[in-house]
């Protein structure tokens, strides 16, 4: 998996998998798959286009399920699907881009750490994850749950069923988060430059050089 390779070898950024991905991005640009000025759109602006019916789809995480299910002007028409497979590709549609949405931390100054730990353990129990986190809060627990369909939205159930197929062994997290501010920002800039027309080979060569310097530190 290309994601694993670049964690150890900076030269792997020039692997065929990344170059071909860059070419696919440029194909989509030529097809008009992105709105004008896409590289300058922030999260809110992108979602507004979707809400206004000016974008057929957008890439988003599970944190947006609540809004899209209850507040979005197009909530009755929203669905979710896995990222489509590329013919001949080595990946798997169940290798999800995954991260942690909500985190609970206990302060080192907590007066009753045992009680705090017990509370966290309680939230992790299947019955409470189902009742408090899934059905009442609309979050996706880290434990498997089967919420009452009457107590969650259709989109929530749709996404939950997709998550059940996740191949957690080969799933991966955000590139810019995983590789830190230097390589991570370099990656973001690389993708943006490819979107704007730069040769993917040259773009990833530059990223490989950035990675080499950073990984020597």
Your description of this structure?
The protein has 217 residues and is mainly α. It has helices at 2-8, 16-31, 43-51, 65-70, 113-124, 126-136, 154-163, 175-178, 180-195, 200-215. Helix 9 packs antiparallel against helix 10 (200-215). The chain is globular and about 55 Å long.
Q: Which descriptors would you attach to this protein?
A:
single chain; 217 residues; mainly alpha; 10 helices; 49% helix; globular
Order of helices and strands: HHHHHHHHHH
Terminal residue distance: 25 Å
- What percent strand? under 5%
Quaternary? single chain
Largest sheet: none
Helix content: 40-55%
**What is the count of DSSP helices, taking H or I runs of 4+ residues?**
10
If you compute it from the alpha carbons, what radius of gyration comes out, rounded to the nearest whole angstrom? 20 Å
Alpha-beta classification: mainly alpha
Provide a concise account of the structure shown.
The chain has 217 residues and is mainly alpha-helical.
Secondary-structure topology with pairs:
Blueprint: H1 2-8, H2 16-31, H3 43-51, H4 65-70, H5 113-124, H6 126-136, H7 154-163, H8 175-178, H9 180-195, H10 200-215
């Amino acid at each position: 998996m290309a994601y694993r390779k670049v964690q150890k070898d900076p030269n792997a950024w020039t692997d065929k998998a990344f170059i071909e991905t860059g070419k696919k991005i440029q194909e989509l640009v030529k097809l008009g798959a992105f709105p004008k000025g896409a590289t300058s759109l922030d999260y809110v602006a992108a979602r507004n286009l979707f809400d206004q019916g000016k974008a057929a789809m957008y890439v988003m995480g599970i944190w947006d399920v609540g809004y899209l299910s209850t507040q979005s002007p197009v909530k009755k028409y929203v669905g979710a699907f896995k990222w489509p497979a590329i013919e001949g590709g080595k990946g798997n549609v169940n290798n999800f881009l995954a991260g942690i949405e909500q985190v609970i931390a206990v302060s080192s100054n907590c007066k009753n750490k045992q009680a705090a730990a017990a509370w966290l353990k309680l939230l992790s129990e299947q019955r409470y994850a189902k009742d408090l986190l899934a059905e009442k809060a609309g979050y996706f627990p880290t434990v498997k749950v089967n919420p009452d369909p009457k107590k969650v939205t259709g989109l929530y159930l749709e996404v939950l069923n997709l998550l059940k197929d996740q191949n957690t062994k080969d799933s991966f997290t955000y590139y810019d988060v995983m590789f830190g501010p230097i390589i991570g920002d370099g990656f973001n800039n690389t993708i943006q430059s490819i979107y704007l027309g730069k040769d993917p080979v040259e773009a990833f060569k530059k990223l490989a050089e950035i990675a080499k310097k950073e990984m020597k530190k």
